[in-house]
């Protein structure tokens, strides 16, 4: 924390700068004015001013120190106590004055980095002050307790002297002291306790100790008290509240001790009470700042996680809870275009609307950071409860927000999780809400998405495949199947398409639609495609050696990322050379959208492959946007018509006239450009006959053969099937 803050502090000023020193003097005078009179200090006004000037210089030096340390804050708090600045208002006035005036007097108003350092030093000062005051108090307490014990143990001749010493300490002590008998009747209180509670001695003597119980006292306070008066313990300490005579509350640190008689039986109880109200209020203020977002005032991530943890710790059987994880759509654009100040004001207004629209017991709205908010609903009765909350939030954000002359429209994406708490954890709830938030964004934004365990399982499986894919290639889990390309005129196998498969050890046999997209995303498509190309060329060479002129060419799919690989031409040539395969026995297939959108450099690679003798085919033709004028200039040999157009030609007795006309048009177009035509998805004899009539050259589909091992192609070529 210290090093991170130090790195942000501006380096253009130092505590020796005359302007900084002048500001320090101004602040020291203000400090002296604020605290003089709040404590009895054995110094003249000039000495007080000089003492506080020294402390101010120490504080300023610490504020600019490298590396930044909070130890000087502890020292300043301790020196205040040593100088007897121990009045009930001194610490509060000091902390407030530091926060309000110091940076302004030094010439750094609004500096967030110095503000962060100052806050740390304020906390350290309060801690040092409290520790020094506690040490002083404990020393006084020990002296008083010793005096009480001395009064019991001293001989009769020393009783008056002991009583005098005790009375002096009892009267002059800075902390409140009260004495009661074993039945709880208050016998005497000193002046400090009278001032603390606002009651006189006579008024206090009308009370029993149990009359001072506060309705919000911890049960342990009075259990320990019962043990003490029973003689089971000699003293205990606790933090306790008291009601003052004016109705206000006083927070105190209570030390209660037992005084026994000569026979060891409980006789008196002595209470030593330190007023810690200022410290308690400061701690509450610092805790509030630590647990709330300074921009929106909403609970922050720390408070939300604390509340969520409490929900899970106190959960009963069948208790349910829900989360709405919310992220603003397009907030970065607003920040980047209109500035961070506008973005901050937008977040403040969004936080206000969320707080207004989601109210009631058991609901908490928190800002997680940036433009992310979360809503916790405790004790929900089902998913509909949380959906209603999400709908209210989306409605609350519909109205435009006016900021600095701009009318801004803002929407949000919300991930919703609602479930029974038994059998899950807070981390599970947060993870699933975060996942669902990104589903909402992926589904179109300005909406909510409900957690779906089946969808999540698919996403997890997808991630698992992505993570294991690189090693799968090394372990030989991929293999290639082949499907014949059959000439429709005489049913001759002219080519085969190589189709990669993955035999996953956990998920079994996987078709390309399960992993090719992942391979594209991870970049593995290039080495995987190179491996498939080599395997296909090796099989093609084997068929060429065995079947000679009847051997089919092999067609290999080329992904978009492969087509843009600068090593594509070199790799293809190297594989063809190593396999001794003539280039015209290899066909590379690219999708229509990929080849039509190919840039100049990848297009040059395709032309180089074409010049080499490799066949180029457009796969799934007719499903994308085709620039027909551009098509005639491409290095293409074959069009493969998408299988979706084959459905209307499948029926035995009739055909779809639209699909029939589309196929006929595509065939005419391809032949006009001197391109061959392959129809994909041929499944029935009627389809094959109609495609032949429409002029298709080649067919591919289950009617001829399903994809299978290379041995199936061997049987087809031999005529065994």
From TrEMBL:
Q: Which residues form the PAC domain?
A: 236-288
Domain called GGDEF: residue spans? 319-453
Which Pfam families does this UniProt record tie to the protein? EAL (PF00563), GGDEF (PF00990), PAS_9 (PF13426)
Signal sequence coordinates: none
For the EAL domain, which residue ranges apply? Answer: 462-721
Q: Would you say which domain of life the source belongs to?
A: Bacteria
Tell me the protein's name.
PAS domain S-box-containing protein/diguanylate cyclase (GGDEF) domain-containing protein
The organism named in the record is Lentzea albida
Q: What is the lineage of its organism?
A: Bacteria, Bacillati, Actinomycetota, Actinomycetes, Pseudonocardiales
Which positions fall inside the PAS domain?
Answer: 162-232
Q: Which SUPFAM superfamilies match?
A: EAL domain-like, Nucleotide cyclase, PYP-like sensor domain (PAS domain)
**InterPro entries (alphabetical):** Biofilm_reg_signaling, EAL_dom, EAL_sf, GGDEF_dom, Nucleotide_cyclase, PAC, PAS, PAS-assoc_C
């Amino acid at each position: 924390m210290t090093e991170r803050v130090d790195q942000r502090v501006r380096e253009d000023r130092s505590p020796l700068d005359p302007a900084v020193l002048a500001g320090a003097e101004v602040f020291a005078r203000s400090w002296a004015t604020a605290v003089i009179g709040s404590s009895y200090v054995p110094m003249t006004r000039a000495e007080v001013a000089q003492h506080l000037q020294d402390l101010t210089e120490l504080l300023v030096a610490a504020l600019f120190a490298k590396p930044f340390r909070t130890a000087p804050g502890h020292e300043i708090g301790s020196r205040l106590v040593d100088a007897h600045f121990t009045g009930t208002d001194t610490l509060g006035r000091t902390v407030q004055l530091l926060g309000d005036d110091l940076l302004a007097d030094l010439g750094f108003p609004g500096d967030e980095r110095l503000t962060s350092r100052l806050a740390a030093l304020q906390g350290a000062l309060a801690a040092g002050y409290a520790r020094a005051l506690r040490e002083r108090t404990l020393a006084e307490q020990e002296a008083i307790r010793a005096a009480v014990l001395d009064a019991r143990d001293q001989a009769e001749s020393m009783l008056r002297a002991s009583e005098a010493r005790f009375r002096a300490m009892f009267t002059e002590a800075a902390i409140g002291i009260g004495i009661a008998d074993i039945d709880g009747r208050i016998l005497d209180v000193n002046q400090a306790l009278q001032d603390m509670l606002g009651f006189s001695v006579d008024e206090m003597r009308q009370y029993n100790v149990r009359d001072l119980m506060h309705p919000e006292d911890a049960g342990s306070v009075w259990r320990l008290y019962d043990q003490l008066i029973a003689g089971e313990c000699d003293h205990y300490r606790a933090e306790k509240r008291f009601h003052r005579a004016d109705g206000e509350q006083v927070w105190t640190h209570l030390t209660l001790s037992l005084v026994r008689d000569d026979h060891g039986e409980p006789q008196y109880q002595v209470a030593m009470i330190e007023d810690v109200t200022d410290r308690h209020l400061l701690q509450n203020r610092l805790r509030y700042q630590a647990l709330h977002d300074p921009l929106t005032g909403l609970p922050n991530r720390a408070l939300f996680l604390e509340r969520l943890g409490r929900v899970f710790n106190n959960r009963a059987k069948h208790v349910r809870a829900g989360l709405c994880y919310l992220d603003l759509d397009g907030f970065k654009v607003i920040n980047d275009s209109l500035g961070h100040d506008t973005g901050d004001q937008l977040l403040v207004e969004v936080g206000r609307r969320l707080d207004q629209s989601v109210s009631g017991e058991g609901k908490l709205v928190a800002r997680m950071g940036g433009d992310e908010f979360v809503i916790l609903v405790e004790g929900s009765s089902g998913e509909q409860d949380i959906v209603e909350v999400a709908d209210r939030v989306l409605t609350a954000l519909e109205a435009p927000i006016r900021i600095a002359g701009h009318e801004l429209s803002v929407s949000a994406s919300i991930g919703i999780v609602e479930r029974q708490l038994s059998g899950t954890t807070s981390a599970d709830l947060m993870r699933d809400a975060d996942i669902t938030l990104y589903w909402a964004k992926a589904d179109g934004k300005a909406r909510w998405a409900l957690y779906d365990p089946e969808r999540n399982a698919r996403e997890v499986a997808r991630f698992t495949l992505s993570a294991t894919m690189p090693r799968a290639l090394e372990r030989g889990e991929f293999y290639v199947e082949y499907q014949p390309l059959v000439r429709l005129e005489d049913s001759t196998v002219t080519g085969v398409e190589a189709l990669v498969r993955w035999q996953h050890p956990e998920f079994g046999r996987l078709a390309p639609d399960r992993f090719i997209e992942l391979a594209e995303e991870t970049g593995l498509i290039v080495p995987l495609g190179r491996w498939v190309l080599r395997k296909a060329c090796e099989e093609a060479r084997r068929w060429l050696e065995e079947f000679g002129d009847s051997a089919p060419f092999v067609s290999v799919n080329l992904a978009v990322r492969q087509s843009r690989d600068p090593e594509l031409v070199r790799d293809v040539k190297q594989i063809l050379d190593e396999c001794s395969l003539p280039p015209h026995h290899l066909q590379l297939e690219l999708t229509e959208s990929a080849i039509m959108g190919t840039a100049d450099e990848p297009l040059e690679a395709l032309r180089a492959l074409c010049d080499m003798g490799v066949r180029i085919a457009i796969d799934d033709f007719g499903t994308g946007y085709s620039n027909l004028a551009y098509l005639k200039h491409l290095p293409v040999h074959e069009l493969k018509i998408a299988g979706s157009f084959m459905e209307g030609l499948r029926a035995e007795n009739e055909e779809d006239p639209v699909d029939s006309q589309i196929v006929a048009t595509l065939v005419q177009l391809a032949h006009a450009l001197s391109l061959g035509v392959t129809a994909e998805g041929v499944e029935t004899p009627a389809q094959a006959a109609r495609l032949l009539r429409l002029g298709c050259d080649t067919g591919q589909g289950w009617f001829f053969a399903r994809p299978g091992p290379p041995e199936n192609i061997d049987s087809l070529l031999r005529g065994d099937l």
